[in-house]
Amino acid sequence: MVGPERPVTQLRCPVCLARDVDVVLRTHPDDFFACVKCSYTGDEADIRQRYADARTKFRWRARRMSREDLDQL
Amino acid sequence: MIVNVIHRPLAGRNHLFRWQQDVAHGLGLKVTILVQPDHLADPAIMTEVLADAEEFGDEIGLWFSELTPESLLPDVEGREPFLWLFSSHEKRAIIASAIRTFTDLTGSAPTSLGSYHLDRDSLAWAKELCPGLQTVVAGCFEEGVKVFHGCNHSWYLFNEGMPWGPWYPSTTNSLVPAAGPDDDAGVVAVPHLSRDLALSYESRNDYFATHPANVQRAMANEGVDVPYLMNLTELTALQEQWNDGFAYMNMFVGPAWLSNHHALEDADDVTQALYRDYLGHLVDLRREGRVRDMHLTEFGQWYRAEVPVGEPSTYLAKEILYGSGKHYLWVLGADLRATIDCFQGGSIGDLRPFVARQERWTGSDSPFLAMGSNPYVIHTQYRSGTAHHFADGSRTTLLLQHRDQTRDLADVATRVRAVERDGAQVTVDLEPVTVTFDDGLAATLRTTYRFGGDGRIGVTRHLEELSDPDADLLAVEYVKGCHGTTEYPEDMRGASLSVAGDTDERLSFAYRSRVLTTTGATSVRVDLPPIGTAVALEPEAPAHVGRATEGYLFNPYFTLECGGTLRRGEAMTTWLVLSAL
């Protein structure tokens, strides 16, 4: 690995992300984040949970497909 | 499949570039390094780049993005970060200066260069100053409205309607394929990245590409597991079977993605592992004899030797991440680019006419400003497609009428059954679908498209089965559209609608909901002066009915229809004709 570790926790708004928009959350003290584009607020645990939920829309995200699989699809 | 791996340094954080280089060299991959004007002014970076070229044979070219004011000449007043946005004289000065410095430092003029968008004028000037220029990175496939939204309305790169793979740029518009040798700008162009052509159509394409960090940005990975990226690579390679044995991809990841990137939440070790593993995957494919890595210039020379100017391209996209398995079939020629949306019955979901050969370039003194996108006449994503709350939007379809019922073929999903290439002609055969009416009548139809390379698209509907051979079935081809490069309505005043047949009529578009009809229709047409293009439906035999409908402000489209009775075992061919005004 190369480069510095992430110096601050930098997270995108999970609500805006669900609309395919990248907006970096504003960080407040005490692990509290707020979005400038929408009214989402939450802590890192809530944000990470929403990220995990967002991934579930990709039903085939864990599915490795061969050339034959793709040819038949 | 041929692969280009491209790197570029990063002033101030060049250890990330060094790491990329070390990984690629360790795997024995051919690398092309594209240096920016600010790199040319940085002796440490240039020493490192030249050493890599000497030791590993890396090609060095130029990259005209992420421009810093300090690296530009004093007489360049603009503060744009990207080449395509400067005025003409500024673009020319930036290109000339960079080529001059590059030549001084490396001992020869570049034979490859690029930008996220290399407009017509920039390309012409670069070729004029570097006659040996072979390969350019000339656009980011389908970056435009959706990416603009996705970047919170702050990314001014509009490249929609361009080729997804290599092409010979036209002298009139770098994002359109050359019409022939006389129109050839003299280089081979490649897109920046190879995208997912299903999700590029439906969504942000900067989430779905042969770029591991882009896939992380979409959150389509689970830590270091990202089967989707391997599947997308495999799907890209699969295109060989529809393109004379040829497929292409590139991987061009800027170093900034590899640490502390604002759009990635994964830890840096995950991001870097994905990058390293993906290069390793390409090497595995090379070991299997399925991938050949090349430098950019080498690729341009190969392409020019192997692929004639004017050759069409096709891409059978299959949706492989959400799990819908949808098929989209893309066809690109010098005359048009079309996308067949099989989930909407095999209708045309995106149609970009190039027949008018309109000039297009970008910059602060261009009438197009930042808008490099090629206009469409149909776009179901930006203009609604099938109706969901009011009238339908821009699309094509076949309407089947029986007694008092109308069925819309766009409501029935199909898939691509076969794609055939014969010179400039591409034939696409879709799987048959069955449409059922309330009285039990079932009609099974198969659709065939023929793209002739001359702006004409033949649409043949084969009625393979009809449960009651004596039943009346009226089949009407339907095209609804409006020109545009964004999702907002355009001013349709100035457009004109006409029908030709037993009656010839014409009207000027004024949003008054008027309808022109004729029997014995030979042509139903709209003229769109802003894009210099006419769109017409022309039945192979005079159609029983022809109709042209003027829209209104809440439904701001033209609609063209023509058709007739279809009986079991018969086929009906209608030509969708794009022509220059």
Sequence-ordered SSE layout with sheet pairings:
The complex is a heterodimer of chains A (73) and B (581).
Chain A: H1 14-18, E1 26-28, E2 32-34, E3 41-42, H2 44-55, H3 67-72
Antiparallel strand pairs in A: 1-2, 2-3
Chain B: E1 2-7, H1 14-26, E2 31-35, H2 37-40, H3 43-56, E3 59-63, H4 88-106, E4 112-114, H5 120-129, E5 135-139, H6 145-150, E6 188-191, H7 199-202, H8 212-217, H9 227-238, E7 248-252, H10 268-287, E8 292-294, H11 296-306, E9 313-318, E10 327-332, E11 336-341, E12 347-353, E13 378-379, E14 395-402, E15 405-408, E16 416-422, E17 425-430, E18 433-436, E19 442-451, E20 456-466, E21 474-481, E22 496-500, E23 505-508, E24 515-521, E25 523-528, E26 533-539, E27 543-552, E28 555-565, E29 571-580
Parallel strand pairs in B: 1-2, 1-7, 1-8, 2-3, 3-4, 4-5, 5-6
Antiparallel strand pairs in B: 9-10, 10-11, 11-12, 12-13, 14-15, 14-21, 16-17, 17-19, 18-19, 19-20, 20-29, 21-28, 22-23, 22-25, 24-27, 25-26, 26-29, 27-28
In short:
The complex is a heterodimer of chains A (73) and B (581). By secondary structure, chain A is of the alpha+beta class. Chain A has helices spanning 14-18, 44-55, 67-72, and strands at residues 26-28, 32-34, 41-42.
